[in-house]
Amino acid sequence: MKIFIYILMILGIGLIVFNATKLDMSNPFEGESAVAAIGILAAACAVLLMVILQLALRVRKKKRGRNHLDSNS
User: Which band of pLDDT confidence, cut at 50, 70 and 90, is reported for residue 71?
Assistant: First the structure.
């Protein structure tokens, strides 16, 4: 699962970079530039969700470890 999350994050960052090259700063919301802006926002959301998932899994792992230690006492 950890490797899958990293792969998705790398793909998302790659899409952000690719769409940033398609973005026209003089007219950011017209034509192909609008599609690139939407793509950048969608990829950024995906990367953010993967970071949140990674943090949630880390918290769950620490919580399980702490509960296991408390039950042995």
Answer: low
* Domain residue limits, the chain: 2-72
- Quote the pTM value: 0.80
Report the 3 state secondary structure along 1-66.
CHHHHHHHHHHHHHHHHHHHHHCCCCCCCCCHHHHHHHHHHHHHHHHHHHHHHHHHHHHHHHHHHH
The token pair that represents 1 in the structure block: 């699962």
Coil, strand or helix: which one is 24? coil
DSSP letter (8 states) at residue 69: H
* 46 in Cβ contact with 4 (< 8 Å): no
